[in-house]
Every structure is written in structure tokens, then in C-alpha cells.
Amino acid sequence: MDFLNFKAITQTGNFKTPSENENIEYKEASWKLPKSFWETVSSFANTSGGIIVLGIAEDKSKHEFSITGVDNVEDIETQIFNDNNNISCLNRPVIQNNDVQISFFQNKTIIQVIIHPEPFNTRPITAFGKAYIRTGDGDQVATKE
Questions:
Q1: Side by side, which strands form the sheet with 100-105?
Q2: Which end of the chain is more exposed for a tag (fewer CB within 10 A), N or C?
Q3: Residue 145: its pLDDT value, please?
Q4: Do 115 and 94 form a contact (C-beta atoms < 8 A)?
């Protein structure tokens, strides 16, 4: 999994592809990290891995995404690494320093986080006590199976 190159994806800041799928998730995160970030971390780690891009809004009616940016970059990056190492958030850390990239597009900051798939013998990765899996473009609570 590689970081996305938004200069190659869009010239205007709006785009339709790549869309969210089993390995890509976009999230708005202007001032704080959304709680659903950790559910997606769990689901990617428990399936085939993926990339979470913070600072992207979705217009579901147009099936389009737009780069909105992250305003509070330092605090969100700090929160990612603090919560990554907080056992009440994730049962064990899965994000390393080189898994996070901060990039810029038209004066907007984007944070990309690569989540690698966990080996089968170390799964599940849980977020807030629940294991998630990725199905299509969504995160689902995993069953015991």
C-alpha cells in the first residue's frame, strides 16, 4: 500500500476516483480525530490493510469527494500516536511513524495513514473493545467467526 498522490488524482480538489473501497477510507478531520478512525484502523488491520485519508469530505448525492483539509494537524497527529498506544483505544499499537504522511494540496493539509494487515495469529485488533472487519467500503463489527 502506497500513499495517494492527490496532485495526480485531481487538479480542482474534487474527485470521484479512487473512491472508498475495501482498502481506502476518507474522513473529515478539521479540528479533531473522529472516533470512527479507530474502527477503520481495526477493520483494515483485521482484513487486508488499507489507507485512511484525513481531510476529505464526501458528497454522497454526487458520489464525489473534496479535499477540505485538516486545520489542527499537530494535535491530530499527536492524538493518533497517543491513542495508538492507549490500550483503552486499541488493544495493541499498529501504526508506526513511517505509516503517517502529511502532505499539502492547494494550501490544504492532508494526513494519510497506512494500516498494514495484522498476521492471522495476532488478530483481532480491537477498537474500544470491539473487533471490526472491512466489507466493501464500510466497517462492520466482527462476529466470533
A1: 24-27, 50-54, 108-115, 100-105
A2: C
A3: 72
A4: yes
